[in-house]
Amino acid sequence: MNALFANIDWSDIGQAGLDTLLMLGGSLLFTLLLGLPLGVLLFLTSKRQLLAQPVVYGLLSFVVNILRSVPFVILLIVMIPFTVFIAGTSLGVAGAIPPLVVGATPFFARLVETALREVDRGIIEATQAMGATTTQIVLRALLPEALPGILAGGTVTAITLVSYAAMSGVIGGGGLGDLAIRFGYQRFQTDVMVVTVLLLLILVQILQTIGDKLVIHFSRR
Amino acid sequence: MIEFKQIHKSYRVAGHDVPALNGIDFQIGAGEIFGIIGHSGAGKSTLVRLINLLERPSAGQVIINGTDITALDAAGLRAQRQRIGMIFQHFNLLSSKTVAQNVAFPLALAGEHGKAQIKARVAALLARVGLTEHADKYPAQLSGGQKQRVGIARALATEPQILLCDEATSALDPQTTQAVLQLLADLNRELKLTIVLITHEMDVVRRIADRVAVLDAGQVAEIGPVAEVFLHPQHPTTRRFVLEAESVDEGEQVDDYAHVPGRIVRLTFTGDATYQPLLGAVARDAGVDFSILAGRIDRIKDTPYGQLTVAFTGGDVNAALQQLAARGLSIEEVRA
């Protein structure tokens, strides 16, 4: 057993695992907080919706598409000055969170937009006919109706963040991905690679299970 | 109560203005059940949505109780909408809320009511539509008829004076349709509720409406009391509805009569005349024979009526027809 995992320092692994969880938690929190309103705005300003604004929608959509088309590794590097400005460092957990948020927010926003589109137009019409304001329609009808879809989108986003977080190891982001690259890849310590990948796999499984349970809990159809 | 004044509405589709409504000009009285019937694309959904401005007219005014609602500001319009209930073909209930929460929803949006007040009102509404035991279910657990009852309870939550029904029974089976229409008729009587319903089914109008407007290509083809419009249809669209409802093919019918001797007329009885032995008595007096080719005895809302297609032979047919006309029957020549 010890021969098999000769290179493994379990306290390093533990620290890296904790870092990954911190990166995931921090970036997921901000991604949800920023992506949800952005998704709502995308939906509302799109064609034939409550606040249809072709110019605003076109602009938002363009920015979202640009951010989504930049490979995450490149985004990590391009963002370094901005990251230093925001987080004070481009290294470690704090340095990883800004690029993770910028990379995942447009992704999540699109998923929110799609989930809102799935809500029957009749629901909006009925709520409008009751004399609701646009804010009431969004907060009290659209978001509750789209909740299962938004939760499913949040789950996909969380899992995407796990793999993005692993990538941030490239620029010294810390966490399991960092360990996998520095020890598993660069020092040919295959055992470290296997353990970190296994841990990431378990993390993804747990996230998906929680997400699925939440979706089922909030589905009333 | 509701007045359409020179309404025009067109939609912009691919750079062209496509007219949906063209010169709509009529009134709906307080406490009336008013039917608007038309084929799909005739503009009836647009017309009903003008009443709560879910659609805005391109030109013209919609006046409700003396107020031109097209001139209201956003807050005024929201207040006006709270006084108008609406039910829909596909119910449009919030799937994330229970039955009770759905009914409470318009009250919660209005924000003028305390929790206890809302609870009491919801309980009363659910009792009225017979869904008390389903209060904590979600819409997905209900049948179509039950969902529409929730829709009706929800629409009545803010005690509106007007209820708009957008093809409210089109997704329901015949028995459920009957029950929902009965509920609407009862509510009309109990609450002096003005009901505007749009439909493509003549039967719905015939069962509960007082007056009807037949809509064709964005214009009112015919308007009047239901019995008058449906028993003596003038416009081709109205005739088509009547024939559809009786599953009669006009061309086929004329062919069938080719071999029938005599003079063929359509007799329409309404009210008390429907149940009197007029035809036999008159035929005896005038010495004519008759054979009944087609007919139906039914009710339009609360008025019984009969409509018979009859071939008269022998004797003095003119005298017979005159006597029938004198007793209040209306006579239409099918073939001389």
TrEMBL record, chain A:
Database matches in InterPro entries: AA_ABC_Transporter_Permease, MetI-like, MetI-like_sf
Pfam families per UniProt: BPD_transp_1
Record has Nucleotidyltransferase as a keyword: no
Domain (ABC transmembrane type-1): residue spans on this chain: 17-211
Compartments in which it is found: Cell membrane
GO annotation (BP), single: D-methionine transmembrane transport
Membrane-spanning residues: 20-44, 56-78, 84-109, 150-172, 192-211
Keywords: Cell membrane, Membrane, Transmembrane, Transmembrane helix, Transport
Superkingdom of source: Bacteria
Keyword Thylakoid: no
Membrane topology annotation: Multi-pass membrane protein
GO cellular component, one term: plasma membrane
UniProt similarity note: Belongs to the binding-protein-dependent transport system permease family. CysTW subfamily.
Name recorded for this polypeptide: D-methionine transport system permease protein
Source lineage: Bacteria, Pseudomonadati, Pseudomonadota, Betaproteobacteria, Neisseriales
TrEMBL record, chain B:
Cellular component, GO, one term: plasma membrane
Keyword Cell membrane: yes
InterPro entries, per database record: AAA+_ATPase, ABC_transporter-like_ATP-bd, ABC_transporter-like_CS, ACT-like_dom_sf, MetN_ABC, MetN_ABC_transporter-like, NIL_domain, P-loop_NTPase
Coiled coil: none
SUPFAM superfamilies cross-referenced by the UniProt entry: ACT-like, P-loop containing nucleoside triphosphate hydrolases
Alphabetized UniProt keyword annotations: Amino-acid transport, ATP-binding, Cell membrane, Membrane, Nucleotide-binding, Translocase, Transport
Membrane in keyword set: yes
Family matches, as Gene3D superfamilies: 3.30.70.260, P-loop containing nucleotide triphosphate hydrolases
Family statement: Belongs to the ABC transporter superfamily.
Name of the protein: Cell division ATP-binding protein FtsE
UniProt source species: Andreprevotia lacus DSM 23236
Lineage: Bacteria, Pseudomonadati, Pseudomonadota, Betaproteobacteria, Neisseriales
